[in-house]
Amino acid sequence: MSAPLGAIPGSVHGTIAVMIPTLNEAAHIRETVINALAIGPVFVLDSFSTDGTQRIAREAGATVIEHKFENYSRQKNWGLENLPFNTEWVFILDADERITPELAAELRSTATSSASADGYYVNRIVIMMGRAIRFGGMLPSYNLRFFRRGRCRYEDRSVHEHMICDGPTAYLREKMLHIRRESISEYLTKHIRYADMESDEWLKIRLGRDKSARAGKLFRDWAKFRLYLRRDVWPYLPWKPAVRFIYMYFIRLGFLDGSAGWHLASLMASYEYMIKLMYEEKLQRVKEGTLKLPSGDTSGRTFSVN
Predict the structure, then answer these.
(1) What is the DSSP string of the chain?
(2) CA 133 to CA 249: how far, in whole Å?
(3) Are 92 and 73 spatial neighbours (Cβ–Cβ below 8 Å)?
């Protein structure tokens, strides 16, 4: 039987450090820190939480450093540049994610061997409504999370950011868990914020001010093509909410995940609708001259759209 997530055996401290970005994660952070400590020293990069996240994280054994949040990529890049890491390898973990014992063993083996890559993609399994989501296009879900310190940083994108690696990359076999345990109200609140930031990214594309990395710099093979579709094709397609639901629930067999598959496809269709509405509103305000550059551009200038 596998060891529980909070008690991964045989950790190699001093080889891997873990960075956990947080904002008001009091309900989850203790378990997250305990899980991550089995891999190595844990640094919680907090955006001035107001719910006691910092205290709970310290009590659990993490080093907590606070920094004002600008956007997701800039926050993480600040942490990579300023946190007092003294390990060769870094793993980035969100507060609602867990490292499985199998992945922990693979991380230790990779970090203590003559690894040929500088960055490694890790596959995530989403746990929603108590069920592992295996359809709907949610699996595989690779993110570059494990890398040699100093070799990787995040692209300049406010949300749904990906990491750029200066050296060769590879894929790990074992998976991590992404546990969605927030209430529906919390889920919607979070995705309203994501939609606001994603609509800014769409606006930057429309206005020729997109600074995010091209797909070829972030992924290879099928993942690169998917990211190209998401960033360079998807914003211009009509009927995006309906297309997203049909794709997830029918084409990618989301119905096989039961009620969780239905709810997830419906929520993601609603998310696409929110992005579209916010984008169109902002575009109209830009045309009227009442909206400045999207967040992240500090020039303070307004611009027009022909």
Answers:
(1) -PPPTT--SS--TTTEEEEEEESS-TTTHHHHHHHHHTTS-EEEEES--SSSHHHHHHHHT-EEEE---S-HHHHHHHHHHHS---SSEEEE--TTEEE-HHHHHHHHHHHTS--S-SEEEEEEEEEETTEEE-STT-SS-EEEEEEETTSEEE-S-SSS--EEESS-EEEEEEEEEEEE-S-HHHHHHHHHHHHHHHHHHHHHHHTT---SPPHHHH--HHHHHHHHIIIIIGGG-SSHHHHHHHIIIIIT-GGGGHHHHHHHHHHHHHHHHHHHHHHHHHHHHHHHT--BSPTT--S--B----
(2) 12
(3) no
What does each of the 306 residues of the chain score in pLDDT, given as a tens digit? 333 344 333 333 459 999 999 999 999 999 999 999 999 999 999 999 999 999 999 999 999 999 999 999 999 999 999 999 999 999 999 999 999 999 999 999 999 988 889 999 999 999 999 999 999 999 999 999 999 999 999 999 999 999 999 999 999 999 999 999 889 999 999 999 999 999 999 999 888 887 787 777 777 776 777 778 878 888 888 999 999 999 999 999 999 999 999 999 999 999 999 999 999 999 999 999 898 765 544 333 333 333
Residue 154 token pair: 């995040």
299: nearest Cα among 195, 201, 197, 209: 209
Task: Give the separation between CA 274 and CA 252, rounded to whole angstroms.
Answer: 22
Backbone angles phi, psi at 129, to 5 degrees: 55, 35
∠ CA 144-148-151 to the nearest 5 degrees? 80
